[in-house]
Design brief:
Layout: E1 12-15, H1 16-30, E2 34-37, H2 42-48, H3 57-72, E3 75-78, H4 81-87, E4 99-101, H5 115-119, H6 138-144
């Protein structure tokens, strides 16, 4: 048991790839169920960004770990139906109800800007919340603005 904890958690949730690896180990040590919140497929993101190739050892190893986390987790959280459909074959030992989609975007059919805002001659306003720098294309973001 982790020092200072008065009671063990009921469940351990690991969010993203690195958090998932840590969460899976903590869940095993504490003998608690593990839920993997996969916000994306990190090994595939490394390939898409041009850092790795699908044939390379880093991709193959981390993809195997990612699939293993999804197979072993009592529950899985993904951000879209496409991701759910991708992970379900890996989760064949768990019923579909343990793989949950939590969308991370706005349903524009439910949330429409007011017509007065659309008719306004004011410049559009935008709030950017997210990462900046590193692998993110700051130049593209600046051109967009």
């Amino acid at each position: 048991v982790v020092q200072g904890m008065k009671s063990r958690p009921d469940v351990v949730i690991g969010r993203t790839f690195v958090g998932g690896l840590i969460g899976q180990m903590v869940a095993r040590v504490l003998r608690r169920p593990f839920v993997f919140h996969a916000e994306g497929f990190w090994p595939d993101e490394q390939v898409d960004a041009g850092f790795w190739t699908r044939e390379g050892r880093p991709y193959k190893l981390t993809k195997r770990w990612e699939v293993n986390m999804l197979r072993r987790a009592l529950g899985a959280i993904v951000l879209c139906n496409v991701a759910r459909d991708m992970v379900l074959p890996w989760r064949e030992n768990h019923p579909d109800s343990t793989t949950v989609v939590v969308p991370s975007c706005v349903d524009l059919k439910k949330f429409q800007p007011e017509s007065r805002v659309l008719a306004s001659r004011e410049s559009p306003k935008l709030v950017y919340l997210g990462s900046l720098g590193g692998r993110y294309r700051v130049d593209s973001l600046a051109r967009f603005f």
